[in-house]
Amino acid sequence: MTYPWHLYVMGAIYIIAGIMHFIKPKVYLRIMPRYLPFHKPLVFLSGVAEILLGIGLFFKETKNLSIYGIIAMLAVFLLVHFYMLSSDKASAGFPKWLLLLRLPLQIALMYWAFRYLKL
């Protein structure tokens, strides 16, 4: 079965995003909520998860599992987005309007993944 090209785009986006956790870990460490322990391992673990889930989208046997994983991962990442809205320090210098825009974007990304379950 051939999947639509945009499913492969989604997979590539998650793979690239996951790789960025290793190339620029400081970016992700800056936005880690203070209440979470082990910031550096969590940044790397989330990078590995994004890479594996992105790759999983390319194969029929793992596509649905990867979609559920992506939706769950994005739901967990919402905690980071809400944390960043909690104070100026937590915002890591990002403007509040941009942080607010990320919330519906996160929901849209979850919906985008969910749409591929029926394929």
UniProtKB/TrEMBL annotation:
The chain crosses the membrane at residues 6-22, 42-59, 65-85, 97-114. The keyword tRNA processing does not apply. One of its GO terms (cellular component) is membrane. Pfam families: MauE. GO terms for biological process: methylamine metabolic process. Residues 8-89 form the Methylamine utilisation protein MauE domain. Keywords: Membrane, Transmembrane, Transmembrane helix. It is a multi-pass membrane protein. It is found in: Membrane. PANTHER family: DOXX FAMILY MEMBRANE PROTEIN, MEMBRANE PROTEIN-RELATED. This is Uncharacterized membrane protein. It comes from Maribacter ulvicola.
